[in-house]
Amino acid sequence: MTTPAIAWFADLRITDRPTVGGKGASLGELTHAGIEVPPGFVVTTRAFEQFLAALEARAPVRAAVAALDAANLDAVTTLSRALRRRIEEEPLPAPVETAIVHAHARLDAATVAVRSSATTEDAEDASFAGLQDTFLRVPGAGETVRRVRECWGSLYSVESIIYRRKHGLPEDGVAMAVVVQAMVDARTAGVMFTRSPTTGDKSVITIEGAWGLGSAVVSGEVTPDRWVVGKITGEISVRDISDKHIRQVPAPGGGIVDEELPADMRTAPALSDEELQALRAVGRRVEKHYGRPQDIEWAIDKTGRLLLLQSRPETVWSAKDAKPVAAASADPLRHVMNIFGGRK
Amino acid sequence: MSDKIMGFPLPSSLSVVPGTEAAQAAYPYYTQFHEGDDDRFWFYNSMHFPEPMHHFDMITAEAAYCALGSFNTRVHVLPTTKGIDHRIINGRVFIGGVAVTDPDEIAARTAEFQSRAFYYYEHWEELYARWKDKMRALIADAQALPVPSLPDLEPIETTHTGKGIAANHALIDTYRKTLEGYFRMWHHHFEFLLLGYGAYLTFFDFCKKAFPEISDQAISRMVAGMEAEIFRPDEEVKRLARRAVELGVDAHFTDGMDIEAVLAGLDALGNNGKAWLAELETSRDPWFNVNVGDGFYHYHRSWNDDLSMPFAALPGYIAKVKAGETIERPMEKLIAERQQLIEDYRDLLDTDEDRATYDQLITLAHRVFPYVEGHKFYCEHWYTNLFFNKIREFGDLLCAHGFFPEPADVFNLTHYELESAIIDLMLSWSSGSAPVGPRAWPARVAERKAAIRVWAQHNVPPALGVVPDVIDDPAIVMLWGITRESLDVWLSDGDGDSRELKGFAASSGVVEGTARVVKSVEEISRLRQGDILVCQVTNPTWAPIFQKIAAAVSDIGGSMSHMAIVAREYGLPAVVGTGSATQKIRDGQRIRVDGGRGVVQILDEEPVLEEA
């Protein structure tokens, strides 16, 4: 019970996943490795547990969820609604609220991103992808606290409950950490794969990016520009510049909004060659740090600063067995017959 | 587009351009398309023969295919292919492979190949050392051949020594030895070439399987050698620049200088000027025996015959030396970079088996590739220059006897016709009467020169005849880079954006600038700092001007061409093998070169007019 309610990225490692979730631990690990990420802190599972204890004291939460049948949608929906209302109404334990407000003040960011970072005892957080809420451009401490509460609530959304019940995940092990980090006013943002998503080639880095916030790329609302860059050589072998009809930008007073783009910007590349090389360099560093290929979310702010928002291990190609591409032979000349021996 | 016929015309459907029939008929009978050729696939060898062929220059095709085919068919015994047949129409050389398709024959040839080619691989270093000795001896023989000349009367020594042979006999003797040496040189040329490329391609093939998206360029950089003779001429120019500064004679070298005046000025200057001229002489022999093309045309002159290229580079190199820059190739750094590249890719391999194969194949490629890089200096440059210059001497002699108006007109005769003209001259010298040639050749020469001008304006299809399902001929794939995929591109040519040209991505980087379309070496003085060089063929002999330009684009060449290697060393974006850059890009246009993707874009709507 020594875990504090708040943990700063700089103090976290990947091994802190149980208390700060996959997203929080990854941001901590990147910070530790000297890779620039938007500064921030994590509202730990300890804070969540304290909050949940207060809730449980009034009426059971976990036991009620554990008793549900995933097939009974009506029951799940009813309980979900009830729990999310209780989560919204339950006052935060005073030490937790104070810790978040103080940390928010120390972060000193105009607006923040509030991102769910769930954790379970025995499942990779990747399996939760898409089931958790993220709130962008949240203004002020009060609003931040409200969004943290909503992230906690999303743990009891209909989809999340059904997912856990279907997979038989024990409710006791399920907890929600929440990442709070300075919002990047992105000029360009996107994703980067340090292994080709199409061929599994580990010698190239695929970069996708579009104007504005990365949410437009991740959600698929914009077809991003796409580049393929030699991981080792830096040569840019593919440049697919797409028609990017909109970008997502900060809305006045918080949140984000779609903005139409003028014709010249729609078809202009969203990244310069120098930026592609900077991305390649960071991608290689992260991959080397983790010792395996990564899927990375990144943003470049208005001043041209490159920041990583997230890095996850690549899972699709890495799950396949590594088979030799050529049958080994003691005599290298046997391989020469691949060229001279005719089409097999 | 809708009325486009997807296929290539048959050879029999091609017609000789009206008015050039006699010039066409003058090519040897065995190079004319004939019955049966419609059943085969042919492609225009624009890589080696991008311009209409002078009748004499066809000897290069003949000698090269004689040798290439011999080694493929009967020496190394390649399992799936024999040699190359060639034909000429409208001055353009078409070639066709001879595939082996019978499985039993392939099996029998495979056994032969493994006992013969494998012997070469196993004894590569020893055989290559022997090769260099053979080439040096051949070059010495060619250099020893006398200048053909006919005295009025035989020198008295002929009498006193009892020589018993008169001077006219030396003409046929020298001529036949000149031809014999050229045919022999091409045999040497092909002794190792296919096997060298084969080992390189084996590594290439493995890399493409292990790293499906790897660029050709990255593989080339891992294989490329550093110490090939062909890098040396440029290094000599750098050495001369440094010596000019050391001797304090550097002020003599300026952009657009009159070379003859500079040489005379240095000679008049005294010791330091003479010292520099002596340095120049040591560079010229042998390193300036490089020509500015691929050595396949008589008019691709060598640096020794025309000093424009090396001298154009001197002012730039001198400025760099004076600024304290290191202009010499950083050998240790280049070697370390190559090693790093090899290790970095190796680290990405997943299995021990693949790492073992990778090590074997890169080792083999490094063993054999020096030949692929090194032979050109001896064959296509040094020997070819000696050869064409010897023929030029015959041109001088025949011209002096009125056979044709210009000495270079000699190249409008086939090598058979040239022998007959030489015999005509020998007969007239012996009989004391006038030769017949002056009445026969001027008209024919004029007719052929006109035909070449007409043919240069006339486009030919990239290929003829039946399109094969697969191109499975390692020689054609290796030497010409032709695959079924590239045929499909040819078939669909014209559908794409005419303002965009595609070629081999030879050296990465994106640059925009002014295109300088340089069609001959005489034009290189037009290049200004920061221009983009657009030319037909580039080879390492153009390296000295790479310091001046922002990017390079060529019609011909592959990603393993020397030009590509040198461009990478200079960090100069380059796209090679575009096919038609010198035709589609106008001088002065703004273009964008993307050397990482192999794309050139024309940015201007209209060509910019040349300044007067």
From the structure above, extract its key features:
heterodimer; A: alpha+beta; Dna Ligase, domain 1; D-amino Acid Aminotransferase, Chain A, domain 1; six-stranded antiparallel beta sheet; B: alpha+beta; four-stranded antiparallel beta sheet; 19 helices; 51% helix; globular; disordered N terminus; disordered C terminus
Can you give me a brief rundown of this structure?
Chain A has 344 residues and is an alpha+beta fold. Chain A is 36% helix and 24% strand.
Task: Give the helix tally of chain A.
Answer: 11
**Which strand order spans the largest sheet of chain B, edge to edge or round the barrel?**
5-12-11-7-8-9-10-6
* Helix content percent band of chain B: 40-55%
Q: How would a textbook summarize the main sheet of chain A?
A: 6 strands, antiparallel
The whole-number mean of residue pLDDT values of chain B reads 90
Q: With helices defined by DSSP (H or I, 4 residues minimum), what is the helix count of chain B?
A: 19
Total separate domains of chain A: 2
Strand-pairing-aware structural class of chain B = alpha+beta
From the alpha carbons, calculate the radius of gyration of chain A and give it in angstroms: 23 Å
Structural class determined from secondary elements of chain A: alpha+beta
| Strand-residue proportion of chain B | 5-15%
Largest interface: A-B, 38 and 50 residues
Radius of gyration of chain B: 25 Å
Tell me what the CATH architecture of the largest domain in chain A is: 2-Layer Sandwich
Shape of chain A: globular
